[in-house]
């Protein structure tokens, strides 16, 4: 999805039009899958488990991740506002900047998760890996059910977005 957002920003910067369905699907993924499902399963399942195994909530990796989740939410909200402006006025300047800020933040955040937090979690939760995995899956499924969506829906959405942005031969 980050690649699709980057391509969207590049197209807009080059003066090309991006259709409303691509913009709207990108926002849906960002708001619903990233903010609701991804962040919630960490905050409701992973972080409490890490805490129960001795990782402090304050002043450590958990606090940092929660802070960054808030930043991502704020950046997504700004992107939604600038997208609405773009769709109404065709003024892409704010949307380009907001996409770039969002992609930069989320890329940095995912790197921290993958190469710091998750590595620490693997070490701390090694004995409970299967249980933690199930809890994460249950949390994600619960959030998806609240949205009336499936993981497959969002995987297809990303594929459709990327296909819609692919240069025509």
Largest sheet: none
- Helix-strand makeup class: mainly alpha
How many β-strand stretches?
0
| Oligomeric state of this protein | single chain
Spatial shape: elongated
What's the mean pLDDT score? 91
Q: Number of folding domains?
A: 1
List the uncertain runs. none
Q: What's the helix count?
A: 6
Helix content: over 70%
Strand content: under 5%
Output the radius of gyration: 17 Å
Give the ordered list of helices and strands.
HHHHHH
Q: Span between N and C termini?
A: 22 Å
Keywords:
169 residues, mainly alpha, 83% helix, 0% strand
Structural features, described:
The chain has 169 residues and is mainly α. It has one domain. It contains six helices and no strands. It has helices spanning 2-13, 20-52, 61-89, 93-124, 129-147, 151-165. The radius of gyration is 17 Å and the shape is elongated.
Write the layout of secondary structure elements.
Blueprint: H1 2-13, H2 20-52, H3 61-89, H4 93-124, H5 129-147, H6 151-165
Précis, in short:
The protein has helices spanning 2-13, 20-52, 61-89, 93-124, 129-147, 151-165.
